[in-house]
């Protein structure tokens, strides 16, 4: 997991990226600690935006309960970020599966899918899901794909290419942050009157 802080189009940001070249982007205890430290840093510095680029095969089940605890810890971290009103963005850049999909991924304010070609946005694979659903509804052909996730209302935006990511995130964040400023200004004005 890679964590960084800096400025993106005049917005202070913390960006967390899963590394698919290391254990298929697994979310184990070490990665979870990085996630939590980055979240604490974002809260302490009161950054403008929190971005997580997901490329994860899921929770590292080989680590037992310490790995699974990452699901709960990441949800708590996301709640703490939201409590201080930092807009959060999840970016599905590749597969997002298992416990990562079931925990922090859907805790974000905005969920962006990087490309129409992204697949495996699901808790369990098609074969496992088909076995679970035996005798019930058939799995749609677009199950776990970017278009299927968008059609089911589980994501907000599908980008045509990675080149759109920066502008999309910063435009949304700027609108949200300006709305927050307007609310604060009106409140101060009301208190003065």
Report on this structure.
- With 193 residues, the chain is an alpha/beta fold.
- It is 42% helix and 23% strand.
- It has helices at 29-45, 65-83, 98-102, 126-132, 146-151, 165-192; strands at 2-8, 11-17, 26-27, 49-56, 58-59, 88-97, 110-113, 121-122, 157-158.
- A hairpin with a 2-residue loop joins β1 and β2.
- α1 (29-45) runs parallel beside α2 (65-83).
- It is globular, with a radius of gyration of 18 Å.
- The model has no long low-confidence stretch (mean pLDDT 84).
**In terms of structural class, how would the helical and strand content be classed?**
alpha/beta
Shape: globular
Order of helices and strands: EEEHEEHEHEEHHEH
Would you tell me the overall average pLDDT?
Answer: 84
**Helical content (DSSP H or I, runs of 4+):** 40-55%
For the terminal residues, how far apart are their CA atoms?
50 Å
Q: How many whole angstroms does the radius of gyration measure?
A: 18 Å
Question: How many DSSP-defined strands?
Answer: 9
Q: How many helix segments?
A: 6
Low-confidence stretches: none
**Proportion of residues in β-strands:** 15-25%
Q: Report the biggest beta sheet as strand number plus sense, adding barrel if it closes.
A: 7 strands, mixed
In short:
The protein contains six helices and nine strands; from the N terminus they run E-E-E-H-E-E-H-E-H-E-E-H-H-E-H. With 193 residues, it is an alpha/beta fold. Helix 1 (29-45) runs parallel beside helix 2 (65-83).
Strand and helix map with partners:
Layout: E1 2-8, E2 11-17, E3 26-27, H1 29-45, E4 49-56, E5 58-59, H2 65-83, E6 88-97, H3 98-102, E7 110-113, E8 121-122, H4 126-132, H5 146-151, E9 157-158, H6 165-192
Parallel strand pairs: 2-4, 3-5, 4-6, 6-7, 6-8, 7-9
Antiparallel strand pairs: 1-2
Helix pairs in contact: 1-2
């Amino acid at each position: 997991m890679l964590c960084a802080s800096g400025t993106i189009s005049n917005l202070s940001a913390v960006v967390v990226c899963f590394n698919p070249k290391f254990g298929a982007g697994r979310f184990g205890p070490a990665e979870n600690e990085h996630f939590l430290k980055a979240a604490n840093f974002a809260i302490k510095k009161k950054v403008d935006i929190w971005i997580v680029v997901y490329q994860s095969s899921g929770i590292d089940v080989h680590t037992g309960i310490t790995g699974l605890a990452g699901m709960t810890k990441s949800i708590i971290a996301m709640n703490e970020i939201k409590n201080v009103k930092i807009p959060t963005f999840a970016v599905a850049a590749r597969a997002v599966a298992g416990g990562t999909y079931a925990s922090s991924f859907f805790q974000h304010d905005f969920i962006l899918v990087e490309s129409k070609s992204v697949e495996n946005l699901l808790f369990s694979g098609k074969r496992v899901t088909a076995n679970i659903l035996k005798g019930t509804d058939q799995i749609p052909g677009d199950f776990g794909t970017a278009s299927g996730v968008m059609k089911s209302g589980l994501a907000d935006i599908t980008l045509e290419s990675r080149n759109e990511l920066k502008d999309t995130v910063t435009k949304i964040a700027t609108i949200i942050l300006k709305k927050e400023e307007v609310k604060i200004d009106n409140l101060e004005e009301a208190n003065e009157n």
